[in-house]
DNA sequence: GCCGTTTTCGGCCCGACTGTTTTCAGTCG
């Protein structure tokens, strides 16, 4: 499913406005209004227009007018005014964990601190020591938070990088004389965080492509380093690099631009054993070219089949390829369903009916609705609401014989590993996902016991987003993952690969570890809106990086096998 | 700023945790 770009841009502008409004001391309820509208527009399945935006829930007259102006000229007056009043670095301050708008306001207005860097300097220089509200522990936490933030640098998650790459690639394809355009680098390898979006192209006139980059409003510092090679910086983060190469060496160039450095080093060593050299131009025996036009030819000349980009990390894939033992990696088409999704009964933005219809359009054989459970109090879930939803789902099932609808829930794993409802209630759900949503800072020993206890609960089928990390916002929880995965394998509890791009959880290195323990996986969207159902592509990328096959993934299985795994064979 | 089975004003998702406070403000999910 294609993302509707206008919606994403409008939502980003409203979200920025909400943040700036809060940082300018604006009323908290109005801040929430802008945030709610941004979330609703981002999750709205239709492309927003001046005519239909007023119908989006949470959008009233005032926001509709702002959206209208934004669609006309890419901005609105009130946003321009706030941008002029609140420096960009102050907005970055609230990315520091535990630092919210109120604190940022004090830091900026009373101390002139206008960036995370300036905050670190002020703390180190003792300028905040003794200030009411800033005790020694608070200062130490803030300093650690800033350092964590700056370490992450301009890395962005897959969702942001993919959106940026798609937009730039589409623009390049429109250029006169453009030939091929492909995404390479870490993004092609499916990495969960991206520092640089690398694009490769062929063109009759390389300068025309560089000119396209210069014309894109969301790229800055466009520099042509040599003819046909350019780099730029995207407005909100990563660098963009474009390389225009000759058609005849496309394969060698794509291989070189995709990496990883370690994988390429292995290939070069293999070439060297034969007295050959491998470069971005081709594979050569002295001056004689052996292969260059396609990646397949280059790999074949080195004695192996084409290696999927997600495996190119020098983690054993070269040896496996040489002996013909590459795994049959899971693909998006192998997925037969989704086992973790939300609706507007809790924090989703689409109704049950809309989500089910969208799932059917994706061709799923089964689809689970797993709204939040009561212990996450702000969601205001009750057993009565869950049972009423189950009845609605059963009625929808009658009209959709081609897709099995599963009524599930996303439980909360409490500090001691217990979950929201007793066993007799849980037994009424077709699928129970259990996730950590609180108490993130337990000791590793406590967190390990907690996750193992959840695995040992016979009603729990899947551990949702196991590390609970949020890329760029919250570090993963600390646990003895070997012990957790042993428990998961022993109890037949699947680990989730949550595909939501800022989660990407489990990350691929932990998937690899879990698989060695014999754990099975669920690749879920964790969708909170119709467009989010497409996030599963990111989870598939993580699974492929870990070498997973369809047999490792419970939602690749036929319905009967899945239901047996869920211990609901009669469902 | 949005919204209406409280319907054009007066509410707005609720409670725990943290570090600081000596009774609470800010942040988070």
TrEMBL record:
Question: Which Gene3D superfamilies does the UniProt entry name for this protein?
Answer: 5' to 3' exonuclease, C-terminal subdomain, Beta Polymerase, domain 2, DNA polymerase beta, N-terminal domain-like, DNA polymerase, thumb domain, Metal-dependent hydrolases
Q: Which residues form the DNA-directed DNA polymerase X domain?
A: 5-313
What does UniProt give as GO cellular component?
cytosol
Q: Where is the Helix-hairpin-helix DNA-binding motif class domain?
A: 51-70, 91-110, 126-145
Catalytic activity of the protein: 2'-deoxyribonucleotide-(2'-deoxyribose 5'-phosphate)-2'-deoxyribonucleotide-DNA = a 3'-end 2'-deoxyribonucleotide-(2,3-dehydro-2,3-deoxyribose 5'-phosphate)-DNA + a 5'-end 5'-phospho-2'-deoxyribonucleoside-DNA + H(+); DNA(n) + a 2'-deoxyribonucleoside 5'-triphosphate = DNA(n+1) + diphosphate; a 5'-end 2'-deoxyribose-2'-deoxyribonucleotide-DNA = (2E,4S)-4-hydroxypenten-2-al-5-phosphate + a 5'-end 5'-phospho-2'-deoxyribonucleoside-DNA + H(+)
Q: Name one Pfam family in it.
A: HHH_8
Keywords carried by this UniProt record: DNA damage, DNA repair, DNA replication, DNA synthesis, DNA-directed DNA polymerase, Methylation, Nucleotidyltransferase, Sodium, Transferase, Ubl conjugation
| Obligatory cofactor(s) | Mg(2+)
SMART domains given in the database record? HhH1, POLIIIAc, POLXc
The segment(s) forming the Polymerase/histidinol phosphatase N-terminal domain are 337-415
Q: Which CDD domains match?
A: NT_POLXc, PHP_PolX
GO BP field: DNA repair
Q: Where in the cell is it found?
A: Cytoplasm
Could you tell me the EC number(s) of this protein? Answer: 2.7.7.7, 4.2.99.18
GO MF annotations, alphabetized: class I DNA-(apurinic or apyrimidinic site) endonuclease activity; DNA binding; DNA-directed DNA polymerase activity; phosphoric ester hydrolase activity; zinc ion binding
Q: What InterPro entries does the annotation carry?
A: DNA-dir_DNA_pol_X (IPR002054), DNA_pol_lamdba_lyase_dom_sf (IPR027421), DNA_Pol_thumb_sf (IPR037160), DNA_pol_X_beta-like (IPR002008), HHH_MUS81 (IPR010996), Hlx-hairpin-Hlx_DNA-bd_motif (IPR003583), NT_sf (IPR043519), PHP_dom (IPR004013)
Q: What is its main location?
A: cytoplasm
Among PANTHER family, the record links this protein to: PHOSPHATASE YCDX-RELATED
Q: What does this protein do?
A: Repair polymerase that plays a key role in base-excision repair. During this process, the damaged base is excised by specific DNA glycosylases, the DNA backbone is nicked at the abasic site by an apurinic/apyrimidic (AP) endonuclease, and POLB removes 5'-deoxyribose-phosphate from the preincised AP site acting as a 5'-deoxyribose-phosphate lyase (5'-dRP lyase); through its DNA polymerase activity, it adds one nucleotide to the 3' end of the arising single-nucleotide gap.
Q: What is this protein called?
A: DNA polymerase beta
Organism field: Thermopolyspora flexuosa
